Amino acid sequence: MSDVERDQARELARQIGVDFGATLAVALAYVGDRLAIFRAIAENGPVTSAELATHTGLNERYLREWASTMAAAGYVDYNPSEQKFALNHAQRTVLLDERSPFNMAGAFQYAITCIRQLSPLTDAFRHGGGVPFADFGPEIAEAIRRMFQAGYEAWVASRWVPAVPDVHQRMLAGGEAAEVGCGSGQCLIPVAKAFPNSRFTGYDVDQGSIALARDKCVRQGLVPRVIFEQVAAEAIPDSNRFDLMMAFNCIHDMAHPRAALRTIQRALKPGGAMLWSEARVSDQLQDNLGTWGRSLYAASTMHCMTVSLAHGGEGLGSVIGPSLARELALEAGFASFDALPVDNSFHQIFVLRK
Ligand SMILES: C[S@@+](CC[C@H](N)C(=O)[O-])C[C@H]1O[C@@H](n2cnc3c(N)ncnc32)[C@H](O)[C@@H]1O
Hints:
Blueprint: H1 3-34, H2 37-44, H3 49-56, H4 60-73, E1 77-79, E2 84-86, H5 89-96, H6 105-115, H7 118-127, H8 138-160, H9 165-173, E3 176-180, H10 188-194, E4 199-203, H11 207-219, E5 226-229, E6 242-248, H12 257-267, E7 268-279, H13 291-309, H14 322-331, E8 336-339, E9 347-353
Parallel strand pairs: 3-4, 3-6, 4-5, 6-7
Antiparallel strand pairs: 1-2, 7-9, 8-9
The structure holds S-adenosylmethionine.
């Protein structure tokens, strides 16, 4: 081994060591989220591990080791003179404030829910097929909602829809809108509240998500102006019905994304528009090499691509750049495809016209 190769090996080993610790810290942060340990520190801190045990009813020895891990990771603060743990403002925002787009608690849950499926995923590497969405259990839908809801609440009704002025006018005046792959209504419900003169339909194939969305709608008094249907995007029966159709972070999960886009094109009214979001990436792997691309390709392999392949689907994967998105849109019969002129570091948003 040359000196250069030795330095490269040392650097790669160092990086993998960092990733090893990060993986274990994320797993333990998931435990802290599920057992409300972060919340107990926020509400009672600064606290020693013994005080934390009193507040939570959890085992002190485990809490001490857990809190030491979190302190080493920078997820909680540690005061050595008092041996107390606390959460500063930034840590509270990122770990506990689910109304903030900076909140990452859902990411712990998403990662661990995916890791639980490594055994069937490994089988899929050998034999093909995939892991169905339902096999990830209810935590996957909860994790996705927690990861995306705050952003949708902050951006969709106040920035993304107004960036299409004629459709925005229709929504203000009283139009009809739909969202496909809507999950449990994390986007559709806040958007519907922002446009009280319009009617909204959410479509998703996941029974649990639709049940949760319907429940929220009933509790918030939005029925029948806002309804949810357990219908696949590609099975929406209508033509020329909707002024606005939305598909956020879901076309790539679908077994038949091309059929879904054709159906959406047909269901739009003339003059209506589709808003479609995918993660902000390039079409070229070489442009995506880095921590952001790593997260996306990993989530795609472990979840987005595999749920599509599980149903004999196309398995597009979650890394869809603007060129592929344009190609899919034009193939589906849309007359125009443009990037929505809004800044967003996570999403790229496209506007498609019939
Ligand atoms: C990654 S989640 C995104 C949920 C939501 N749009 C968000 O961004 O928070 C993908 C969603 O697409 C749904 N889905 C998958 N295939 C679908 C299809 N063919 N038609 C409608 N929904 C579908 C899944 O059930 C899941 O709720």
